[in-house]
Amino acid sequence: MTNKSFSIVFPGQGSQSVGMLGDIAAQFGEVKETFTEASDLLGYDMWKLVCQGPAEELDKTTHTQPALLTGSYAIWRILQSRKPLKPAMLAGHSLGEYTALVCAGALAFSDAVRIVAARGQYMQEAVPPGIGAMAAIIGLDETQVAAICKQSVTSEDEILSPANFNSIGQIVVAGHQAAVIRAVALAKAQGAKLATLIPVSVPSHCELMRPAAVRLVELLAGMTLQQPMIPVLSNVDVMPYRGADSIRDGLVRQLYSPVRWVEMIQQMIQAGVSHITECGPGKVLTGLNKRIDKSLQLMATSDLAGLEAVLTLETE
């Protein structure tokens, strides 16, 4: 395997779990060190929350986002200290894009922790509880899901649109709760293998997130950003970021635009990537990537065995 054929991706919300990275933390000091840094910035013991829960607290988006960023960055630090990797490119799913930018040297970890904690708060406050929802639809294509979204909207004020193009035949929709529920019923009627509400507190990546995006513009304006030292693919444009203004624009639009994960992985493959490692808690992206292209060589660092396997990889 060459560095040119190797990429790293970083998970987003949904990959968190109480007790995550515990076996790795027992072997590598970087995990607790990184969580201590983040805890000092945010004013609460994030590692205690990750280790002990309760899950309802960890699953609050204001806690989930910094916890996943911190956990993923800790794994990156372990990899880089023992086996300096120079992947062809980096990418992250939604929140994971912030981790990718930190690892590429475009954004300071301390700034990223503050941004994603605020981002979670902005997202939560943009839509009152019970107003928005998200649903996963499996077994229908993009055209069918787009049509279902249109059919499920019953007034000009209602919003419903594709939010995540996660893998071939797996699309998440987001918008007003009533419209999402109608879409689930329509998708089932049209032969979807699965159509189900996702237990989330925020309808991400749809127009309901515009108020959060406005607030994020102001926050990002005061942050130092620079050109990534490793190419980072944008969720919105599926192109590598080009400098600070490009990053600010992409991170703001990302809040109300769909995550084009399938195209991002296909872009990597077209660039010659054959090996993709998921860096951080969980194996969600590894599962999605397998369904996008079965020929990919995939690894995940969510446990000690997976991390040690990556550390023993032969790279040129």
TrEMBL record:
It holds the Pfam family Acyl_transf_1. It catalyses: holo-[ACP] + malonyl-CoA = malonyl-[ACP] + CoA. This is Malonyl CoA-acyl carrier protein transacylase. It is an enzyme of class 2 (transferase). Transmembrane segments: none annotated. The keyword Zinc does not apply. InterPro entries: Ac_transferase_dom_sf, Acyl_transferase_dom, Acyl_Trfase/lysoPLipase, Mal-CoA-ACP_Trans/PKS_FabD, Malonyl_CoA-ACP_transAc, Malonyl_CoA-ACP_transAc_FabD, Malonyl_transacylase_ACP-bd. Its EC number is 2.3.1.39. The lineage of its organism: Bacteria, Pseudomonadati, Pseudomonadota, Gammaproteobacteria, Legionellales. Keywords: Acyltransferase, Transferase. SUPFAM superfamilies: FabD/lysophospholipase-like (SSF52151), Probable ACP-binding domain of malonyl-CoA ACP transacylase (SSF55048). PANTHER family: MALONYL-COA-ACYL CARRIER PROTEIN TRANSACYLASE, MITOCHONDRIAL. Residues 9-315 form the Malonyl-CoA:ACP transacylase (MAT) domain. It comes from Aquicella lusitana. GO terms for biological process: fatty acid biosynthetic process. Belongs to the fabD family. GO terms for molecular function: [acyl-carrier-protein] S-malonyltransferase activity. One of its GO terms (cellular component) is cytosol. The active site is at S94, H205.
